Amino acid sequence: MNQTDTRDQVFPINDAATGTLTFTRGASNVALRTTQEREHLCRLVFTGKVPDVSADGKGGVQITYPRVFNPLDWGRHGIDATLTEALPWQLDVRGGLAHLRADLVPIRVDGIAVHGGASDVRLALPAPRGIVPIRIDGGASAVELVRPAGVTIRIRFAGGASNLRLDDQQIGAMGGPIALHAGADANAPDRYELTIAGGASDLTIRAQGGETDRSL
């Protein structure tokens, strides 16, 4: 199923057991929200340039911007995606991620992968089920991950880190490789595993502290 012409696109849930949202050539100015609606897998609303969008009918949705793209246009387009809470989701971004605001607290997240680096990202996460991987290849800058109170997150950096906030700890600069964790039990069976293959700066990892944590 392909839809490439409209700014408001809706995909049926069909018999999907899981959902996967994939950006094949990078993503910028993205808002991710959730809905209790169970009939539709997701709704995508675009501003600016409309990319190619396809769905496989089994829970997978791919978003592809043109290979030749004026860098100045990245600030003139955006995506507002609403995902059903009826399914667990995975997010896969290839080609870098910038300017993301995501409230995924109401849904189950099975994994997040960003290839090409991430900048200006704010992600509110749900309680994990099992070990949930979050991987950022290419470095991270101005990234904030907010998790439920009491949830363990283990962090590994291949490169160094500067201006790192881990719950109530403020860390100025550290050389890599680095392994840290937040939460009482580093080996909790339900936890997040964050891997950053590259350096990190202005990284905040903290527990939820109020309703403002859920605002985009």
Beta-strand percentage? Answer: over 45%
H/E series: EEEEEEEEEEEEEEEEEEEE
Distance between the ends: 30 Å
Summarize the amount of helix as a percent range. Answer: under 10%
Q: How large is the radius of gyration?
A: 17 Å
> Biggest sheet, in brief?
10 strands, mixed
What's the number of helices?
A: 0
Structural class estimated from helices and strands: mainly beta
Task: Give the arrangement of secondary structure elements.
Elements: E1 2-3, E2 8-12, E3 19-23, E4 27-35, E5 40-47, E6 52-55, E7 60-64, E8 78-84, E9 89-94, E10 97-103, E11 109-115, E12 118-124, E13 131-137, E14 140-147, E15 152-157, E16 161-166, E17 169-174, E18 178-182, E19 191-197, E20 200-207
Parallel strand pairs: 3-7, 3-9, 4-8, 4-10, 9-11, 10-12, 11-13, 12-14, 13-19, 14-20, 15-19, 16-20
Antiparallel strand pairs: 1-6, 2-5, 5-8, 6-7, 15-18, 16-17
Sum up the structure in keywords.
20 strands, 216 residues, mainly beta, disordered N terminus, 0% helix
Could you give a quick summary of the protein structure above?
This protein is mainly beta and 216 residues long. It has strands at 2-3, 8-12, 19-23, 27-35, 40-47, 52-55, 60-64, 78-84, 89-94, 97-103, 109-115, 118-124, 131-137, 140-147, 152-157, 161-166, 169-174, 178-182, 191-197, 200-207.
